[in-house]
Amino acid sequence: MVKICCIGAGYVGGPTMAMIAFKCPDIEVVVVDISVARINAWNSDRLPIFEPGLEDVVKGCRGRNLFFSYDVEKHVAAADIVFVSVNTPTKTRGLGAGKAADLTYWESAARMIADVSKSDKIVVEKSTVPVKTAEAIEKILTHNNKGINFQILSNPEFLAEGTAIEDLAKPDRVLIGGRETPEGQKAIEALKAVYAHWVPEENIITMNLWSAELSKLAANAILAQRISSINAMSALCEATGADVSEVAYAVGKDSRIGPKFLNASVGFGGSCFQKDILNLVYICECNGLTEVANYWKQVVQINDYQKSRFVKRVVSSMFNTVSGKKIAILGFAFKKDTGDTRETAAIDVCHGLLGDNAKISIYDPQVTADQIMRDLAMNKFDWDHPQHLQPMSPTAAKKVDVVWDAYEATKNAHGVCILTEWDEFKKLDYKKVYDGMQKPAFIFDGRNVINVEELRKIGFIVYSVGKPLDPWVKDLPAAPPS
Ligand SMILES: NC(=O)c1ccc[n+]([C@@H]2O[C@H](COP(=O)([O-])OP(=O)(O)OC[C@H]3O[C@@H](n4cnc5c(N)ncnc54)[C@H](O)[C@@H]3O)[C@@H](O)[C@H]2O)c1
């Protein structure tokens, strides 16, 4: 029986390995992690991450050929194929701080693999890593190898949170990069055979290691670029009276462009986009490609601009101050159908409002109060470390309240900000929300989920990203010349 071990039981390691075990009853899959709490949660009825459909897949094979363990070394030693799906945070100090990937966790995983291995292994990069990481990993493994043969493959993951199970069951493509040597090709075939249990052969693409590593960064950069492009248009729409949804619809009808990833919003979030682009920028700079680096940097800069533009709209609309005012935040996750808050736009918006002394009341159907408080107390980039190693600043926001109901959050509020596109926010009884609020009642829709006209009829002053401005908002430009 082929034995797979995956190091890292996170958003990627957990669901991907569960899918492999589910589809391949003839393969034993063990997911290991240094976080005991995470492993215990994977073995319990309350999985550590929320993902539609995940529970059924896990329950379908856990205890059969899918296991979760914190005995990392034992299972790595026993495996034929070792996936590495550990954190790859952005460096916060030293060379490349604020841009380059911090490979501390990757390196320590590689050293551990070298230490405990007694048989040949295929080591698979599942984490998103800088181009040429495989070469570094290869060096660590071969310099400690005691005659063992390691083959390194790159198999970047393209799942999107919120639709991970669907994406894993029917991937657009599976990408496998490997060495162009006979041993490298043999390793590629072995991994291909795993995916071939359920993925059609024509969707399994093989290439060299560097192309595979770069393809992942390129895909995320281009997806994020589409969002920044439409968000840049949203600012122009507000200035000219155009409607960004109409513009996006017209543009997306062009079959060369297509409709996906053209929703204007308060800004993209998630653990990957910003991190991967900054990483790409750093690689470009290291290769002397200043113009290329600056081009991609702009995608992140527009995203930051969009978040701060939103905060300025809120503050300027509400008589240029939110000091002492209650603002309800509806949605904290970086997108709907996930409880993940990594790099969510909500963090920057909340910091912006707290900076102006607002009192905020947050409701999200999937994010715990504990997580929100951690997020608001954490320094930039510190979220991407194993949880028990995350440094906390002691200044946990005192003016923050987390509640379990949208009506509770909006009660007596002066303004409401919608920051995640949860379906339930489309169906709220907005008359009830309005009646419970201070007047004038403001609503700022950062995800374009509400019906602007209906809300204006109720009496709200409405701002919706990229939509023609409410006369009230129009008189108060959000971005005064600096
Ligand atoms: N989240 C996504 O949607 C997504 C999609 C594609 C790729 N990726 C990439 O996949 C990688 C993992 O992302 P994630 O979202 O699963 O992260 P995560 O933080 O959810 O999980 C990483 C896990 O690795 C564990 N870990 C760290 N070092 C370890 C070690 N030495 N031994 C054992 N366990 C260790 C941590 O405790 C943590 O549980 C990252 O490189 C990320 O960029 C993420």
From TrEMBL:
NCBIfam families: NDP-sugDHase. This is UDP-glucose 6-dehydrogenase. Pathway: Nucleotide-sugar biosynthesis; UDP-alpha-D-glucuronate biosynthesis; UDP-alpha-D-glucuronate from UDP-alpha-D-glucose: step 1/1. Keywords: NAD, Oxidoreductase. SMART domains: UDPG_MGDP_dh_C. One of its GO terms (molecular function) is UDP-glucose 6-dehydrogenase activity. One of its GO terms (cellular component) is nucleus. The keyword rRNA-binding does not apply. It is an enzyme of class 1 (oxidoreductase). InterPro entries: 6-PGluconate_DH-like_C_sf, NAD(P)-bd_dom_sf, UDP-Glc/GDP-Man, UDP-Glc/GDP-Man_DH_C, UDP-Glc/GDP-Man_DH_C_sf, UDP-Glc/GDP-Man_DH_dimer, UDP-Glc/GDP-Man_DH_N, UDPglc_DH_euk. SUPFAM superfamilies: 6-phosphogluconate dehydrogenase C-terminal domain-like, NAD(P)-binding Rossmann-fold domains, UDP-glucose/GDP-mannose dehydrogenase C-terminal domain. It comes from Ceratopteris richardii. Gene3D superfamilies: Cytochrome c1, transmembrane anchor, C-terminal, NAD(P)-binding Rossmann-like Domain. Belongs to the UDP-glucose/GDP-mannose dehydrogenase family. NAD(+) binds at residues 8-13, 33, 38, 86-90, 127-128, 161, 272-275, 342. Its EC number is 1.1.1.22. One of its GO terms (biological process) is glycosaminoglycan biosynthetic process. Residues 328-452 form the UDP-glucose/GDP-mannose dehydrogenase C-terminal domain. The active site is at residue 272. It catalyses: UDP-alpha-D-glucose + 2 NAD(+) + H2O = UDP-alpha-D-glucuronate + 2 NADH + 3 H(+).
